Amino acid sequence: MIDEETQEIFRQETEALIESLQECLLQLNSTPDDMELVTQVFRDLHTLKGTGAMFGFARLAEFIHDFEAAFEQVRSGNAVVTPDLIAVSLKAYDLIVALLEGEEPPTEQDAELKAALGAVTSGGAAPAAAADAGDAAEEAPVAEGELEGWKLRFKLPPEFMEIGGNPVAILEELMEIGGPDTKVEALLDGLPALAELKPNELHTAWEMILPPSADEGDIRDVFMFHEDSMELELTAIRGAAPVVEAAPVEAEAAQVEAEAAPAEAAKTEAPKAEAKKSGGKKSGSANVQMRVSAERLDDIMDRVGELVIAEARLSDLAQKLNDPNLTEVVEDIQRLALGLRDTTMAIRLTPMSSITGRFQRLAHDLAGKTGKDFDFVIEGEETELDKTVIEKLSDPLVHILRNAVDHGLEDNDTRVAAGKPARGTVRLKASYSGADVLISVQDDGKGLDPEFIFNRAVDRGMISADANLSRNEIFHLLMAPGFSTAEQVTDLSGRGVGTDVVKSTVEALRGSVEIESELGHGSSFTLRLPLTLAIIDGLLLQVGEERYTVPLAAVEGIVEEPEEIRDGTESTTTVELREKLISIMRLREIFETGGTRADHPKVVLVRTGDQQIGLAVDRIIGSYQTVIKQLSPMHSRLNVFSGATILGDGDVALIVDVAQLVKAEGLDHDNKEQAA
Q: What's the CA dihedral at 409, 410, 413, 416 to 10 degrees?
């Protein structure tokens, strides 16, 4: 019995295989003639089957054996990739995932899927191949000799025994497959001179003759974990084929074709060989990777954060003591701490591509359920976010994608009648914007109707009929719990739950949701999220007797506060700066801090969304490595602060969330724009 810890290791190791399998199946749906994808699917299934059997997943291995056999039919030309094959394969994929996650689906499901896989691959060879075979049969029938056995030659890697391998066990397993008729011969021509022989390295190769009853797949399974680092040749031994007489002209043509074949093969294979040679990794420069648990990464990040705080305290102490030697050491520690912080942050960053595979599958399933034809385009897969953000993004994006297809896109006839292409487009896009990452889902569907949404909210008693809401406020009614514009509930949407999940999840990540739409032309839902939730570069500000931090990436400039607004007591005002009207927020009045006003107050120009806002402060202290600490539950409702950080002298500085502060003061563009 395999223990739970070992099974968990197996599940982690199969993550990449599972992702590759789903991705290849979805690509085959659009490029069914791509034999490289077929081969990759076969390899993924073959590896999953072998590792599953080794780790005790007997049911999984047995099911994948038939799944693999279906693609072997395609690989050998006896079947073709069809939409039906992809549909059944994706259902089989879902069963594999369920088994890997420890679920116990009904065993009848295995039999049903096996039968379905057999049915969709029993239709015969590809049309072109069948036609060629028919022509060849008319001209000159060719018969293949009967299988008489297998010739196997293999040489294990030199370090095989060092990593715990046992060549005797390999030989015994092969003997068991072949039975008593198996012949084995050791090949010693690779043995070095005695003086150069290293006893811990393996230099012997073997040649074996196995009977025809041995299964090719079983033979290859023996070397499953070593194929990439060893020499392996397996050829079928066949008897002489029956001689078929051919007409002289046909024989001559066959001769010409046979002579031309090697030349053609050279033309096509040479570039591949050259590419392989140039693209291969140089010896000693392999990109070695290792799997580390998320908990350990979190622990490292916490310790780096504490190191940054300790470094800040040391820097503050060195400044007070004014000791040149201590200052020099502190500068070295600052440099090392900064490098360690950046490296740790880079480890935590995860590309969007790590979760886009599931969205491609979702798009495929939505197209089938809704009957709508559309292209699903992903842009910016290389955009990286903190792993904590990535982990929580999946559910919000699933809900937005469902709504984009179910509510946003029209059916084909409606699109054509409106002068649009029959095939719609849904686009998932990720990009950087200062200290934030923008992830948007756009569709070219019917768009949002503000008047319809407003009336639906009035009918449900959410707002009064005389409410004066901006266009953006009307759109954000879609995210109220239980609100939906759907006329009827489907298994995809209509319950008014999905958008509420989007809002709550994004706000918990200190992000925001922006909605844009043009009636008749489509909608765009954009999630604005922080790049990281751990450590940021901040600008430390003095306001009265308190100190605050704003993200340095959002700062666009610092200017002297104009004389005409210094004596004002309102929380906000407007002034012309750099030939533009800028809204100014007086943090002293907003946060009600005490203390003497500075003689030379400053205005910090920050960017939030597409707006530039000014923050009136007393003094700029300087840049500061800000370790983000979560606020206590008692203070978590203070949305204008995204957290707090500990300063070098032990005091706490609150981190200002500029976007939330702008919203709270009613300075965002959408609050100024009234609904028509």
A: -70
Average pLDDT for residues 98-104, to the nearest whole number? 84
Q: In the sheet that 205-210 helps form, which strands lie side by side, from edge to edge?
A: 183-187, 205-210, 147-155, 231-238
Closest CA to 499 of 635, 395, 428: 395
Q: Give mean pLDDT, residues 224-235.
A: 79
Please state, in angstroms and rounded to a whole number, the distance separating the CA atoms of residues 325 and 482: 64
Query: Per-residue DSSP letters for 351-384?
Result: ETHHHHHHHHHHHHHHHHHH---EEEEEE-TT-E
Query: At CA 71, angle to CA 69 and CA 73, rounded to 5?
Result: 75
- Tens digit of each residue's pLDDT (9 = 90 or more) over 555-568: 999 999 988 888 88
Cβ neighbors of 352 (< 8 A, separation 6 or more) are 380, 381, 382, 383, 384, 385, 390, 430, 439
Q: At what angle do helices 387-403 and 498-508 cross, to 10 degrees?
A: 160
- Confidence at 548, pLDDT banded by 50, 70, 90: very high
The pLDDT, as a whole number, for residue 242 is 54
Per the listing, tokens 């003094």 go with: 619
Is the pLDDT score of 154 beyond 60? yes
CA distance 530 to 536: 10
**Among 218-232, 403-417, 480-494, 603-617, the least confident range:** 480-494
Q: In this structure, what token pair is assigned to residue 119?
A: 């049915």
Encode burial over 368-384: b for 16+ CB neighbours within 10 A, e otherwise: eebebebebebebeebb
Taking residue 576's Cβ as centre, other Cβ atoms within 10 Å add up to 10
CA angle, 29 then 33 then 35, to 5°? 105
Place of tokens 């070095």: 192
More confident residue, 676 or 158: 158
Where residue 165 falls among pLDDT bands split at 50, 70, 90? confident
Distance CA 455, CA 474 (A): 10
pLDDT tens profile 372-383: 999 999 999 898
Question: What is the rounded average pLDDT of the residues 313-339?
Answer: 88
The C-alpha atoms of residue 529 and residue 395 are separated, in whole angstroms, by 15
Is pLDDT of 6 > 60?
yes
Strand, helix or coil at 586? strand
3-state secondary structure 416-440: HHCCCCCCEEEEEEEEEECCEEEEE
The CA distance from 652 to 97, in Å, is: 47
Residue with tokens 């040391």: 314
User: Rounded to whole angstroms, what are the CA distances from 84 to 67, 179, 370?
Assistant: 14, 40, 17
Distance CA 415, CA 446 (A): 9
DSSP 587: H
Q: 262, exposed or middle or buried, with CB in 10 Å at 0-12, 13-18, 19+?
A: exposed
pLDDT over 90 for what percent of the chain? 19
Give the pair of three-digit tokens for residue 149: 């056995």
CA distances to 436, 539, 545, 590, 621 from 602, in Å? 25, 13, 16, 16, 11
SS3 assignment, position 623 = strand
DSSP structural state of residue 512: E
* Band (281; pLDDT cuts 50, 70, 90): very low
Other beta carbons within 10 angstroms of residue 632's beta carbon come to: 8
pTM for the structure as a whole: 0.63
The arithmetic mean of pLDDT across residues 206-226, rounded, is 84
